[in-house]
C-alpha cells in the first residue's frame, strides 16, 4: 500500500490550543492518492455484499460516497440535527462535556440491508457508536466500520468491539 500518511498533514492548535488536527485535504487533492485510498478500503471488503454505505458528517462523506459508487451501493448520510429535510430517527450520545445527537432519514435503511459505516477519524468512538445504533434501530446489519485514521490513544475502538473495525492509519 502507498504511504497514506504522506498525504495527511498536522495542523497544530486547530480548532483550539492543544489539538493536533489531522488535515486530509492534501489526500483529497491528489487523484491517485484518493484512488489508492479507496482501493485500500475495498481490499477489506472482498467477498462482502454491501447494500448501503453510511457516511458520518461531514468528512466521512468524502470516501463514503466514493466507496458506495465502487460497491454499487447506496449512500446514506448521517448528520447533525436539523440538516436532513425528511422524517428522521435520532440517536444522542455522550461527549466528554455534554451530549450530541445524530440523525438519519427514517427510510434510508431497510431491514436486513448490509451496511458499511464510514467516517474519517475514529477518536473516542461516541459518534461511530451512535451511528451504529441508528443503523441497527432501522434493521440494518453492520458488516464493517471503516476509518481513514484511528487515534488509538483515545480507545474509541473499545466502543465498537462488537463490529469489525478497519483503519488505514493509526496514531
TrEMBL record:
<dbReference type="GO" id="GO:0005737">
    <property type="term" value="C:cytoplasm"/>
</dbReference>
<keyword id="KW-0660">Purine salvage</keyword>
<dbReference type="GO" id="GO:0016208">
    <property type="term" value="F:AMP binding"/>
</dbReference>
<dbReference type="InterPro" id="IPR029057">
    <property type="entry name" value="PRTase-like"/>
</dbReference>
<dbReference type="InterPro" id="IPR050054">
    <property type="entry name" value="UPRTase/APRTase"/>
</dbReference>
<dbReference type="GO" id="GO:0006166">
    <property type="term" value="P:purine ribonucleoside salvage"/>
</dbReference>
<dbReference type="GO" id="GO:0002055">
    <property type="term" value="F:adenine binding"/>
</dbReference>
<protein>
    <recommendedName>
        <fullName>Adenine phosphoribosyltransferase</fullName>
        <ecNumber>2.4.2.7</ecNumber>
    </recommendedName>
</protein>
<keyword id="KW-0808">Transferase</keyword>
<keyword id="KW-0963">Cytoplasm</keyword>
<dbReference type="Pfam" id="PF00156">
    <property type="entry name" value="Pribosyltran"/>
</dbReference>
<feature type="domain" description="Phosphoribosyltransferase">
    <location>
        <begin position="45"/>
        <end position="158"/>
    </location>
</feature>
<dbReference type="GO" id="GO:0003999">
    <property type="term" value="F:adenine phosphoribosyltransferase activity"/>
</dbReference>
<dbReference type="GO" id="GO:0006168">
    <property type="term" value="P:adenine salvage"/>
</dbReference>
<keyword id="KW-0328">Glycosyltransferase</keyword>
<dbReference type="InterPro" id="IPR000836">
    <property type="entry name" value="PRTase_dom"/>
</dbReference>
<comment type="subunit">
    <text>Homodimer.</text>
</comment>
<comment type="pathway">
    <text>Purine metabolism; AMP biosynthesis via salvage pathway; AMP from adenine: step 1/1.</text>
</comment>
<comment type="function">
    <text>Catalyzes a salvage reaction resulting in the formation of AMP, that is energically less costly than de novo synthesis.</text>
</comment>
<dbReference type="GO" id="GO:0044209">
    <property type="term" value="P:AMP salvage"/>
</dbReference>
<dbReference type="InterPro" id="IPR005764">
    <property type="entry name" value="Ade_phspho_trans"/>
</dbReference>
<comment type="similarity">
    <text>Belongs to the purine/pyrimidine phosphoribosyltransferase family.</text>
</comment>
